[in-house]
Design goal:
This protein is of the alpha+beta class and about 450 residues long. The protein is built from 13 helices and 13 strands.
Length: about 450
Amino acid sequence: MRQQLVQILYDVSTSAILDEGYIELAEQLIVTAIMNGLNNARASIWLLNDDFSQCHCRLLLDNDDDDPDHSLVLTRETFPAYFQALDTQRVIIANDAHTDPATYEFSDCYLTPLGINSMLDAPLRFKGKMIGIFCCEDTRPRQWQDDECAFLSALADLYGRALSAQESRLVKQQLEVANQQLEERVIERTKTLQKTLDALNNTQVKLIESEKMAALGNLVAGIAHEVNTPLGVAVTATSSATDHLALLTQQLNDNTLSKNDVDNFILHISECLTISSTNLDKAAVLISNFKQTAVDQSSLKVSTINLHDYLTKAIHSLTPLTRRHKVNTQIHCDKTLSVLTVPGALNQIIMNLVNNSCVHGFTGADDNQVTITVTDTPERDSYSLCYQDNGRGMEEHVASKVFEPFFTTSRGSGGSGLGMAIVYNLATQALRGNVTVHSRPQQGVMFTIELPYKLT
């Protein structure tokens, strides 16, 4: 994401306005940030009614109109295609809003009169439920970029935080009113007041727990939120480290730096780097796994490689992983064999297989072996790549489901169940081959992948 967008997100996320509980101020802050970050003509917030049959404009900013019309209402009956897109799409990206299947209905009655050519809409969710959208409109023909979509989605998440703050403020006000009323009756009804106060304390605890559950619901509401959260933490940790570095520099310049200051700085930087690294790894794994699960063949480059050399380099790149798990790797392949294939897909398959062996097959073992054997079968214009380990193997019912998406035997230990599904998709779709598995308990596992010499 561009530094300008990252800085705007940081400024909004650290603004006290978000947590003060006044949603109107938070909305003004966020919509202004959209305009500044995306440099578009109009930005607005739309809220859905309870049965999702219509949405009304909550706030609208227009660069060319200081007092735009805020009374706009969209109904599902009038704009069925747009509401259908809201139901099924995570983000509506309409580079040409007049022809896009989701927004063409607005062409005559809305887009043309206002001179709007492109739209970008992101959903707003609160406690796991879609409550509205952020709408960005531009009079220029525009190709919305991935980082702009991520930027808008991140602001949508921050809007949910502002709604939680408003809810907490209103609850707090209710509690304050109740306490005031109780205090006025304290003399004549002491015993009753005590019971009431106990009940209020219990209610407050439940409300706090409810807010925690609401935050958890927001955390898992959609893939984008899962990715944006660790990225936001990493940005915050990096910013905190930058601030402490600036403070240390100032102390050094002022000759006020002490050993204790240096120790505290090192401790804080270490914590920030650990937090940042951990969360960036989480985001990278999420993006990679979900991207690789639905293989887009058009994005995979085909080239000719020396298979022995490529496999050697692929295994070498995994040395930190194999060394940590005490794995000895052997490759048996004709050193002159060249194939026309998708190297990136082949490398991903090898990486996933080795990682699968290390995570599932070699737990607690020392004499760990991985053998990759390539057998040339010219009569079928193909070759067979056999991957085998000496790990603990699998039961028959586990082996039969190993290629199913999200199937894992170690979910409690952080397994996602996508690694072997990615291998299957890459082997059968990107590389136009087939893959089989054979395994028995305590006898290791063997994956056989048959691939063509040349991809056409």
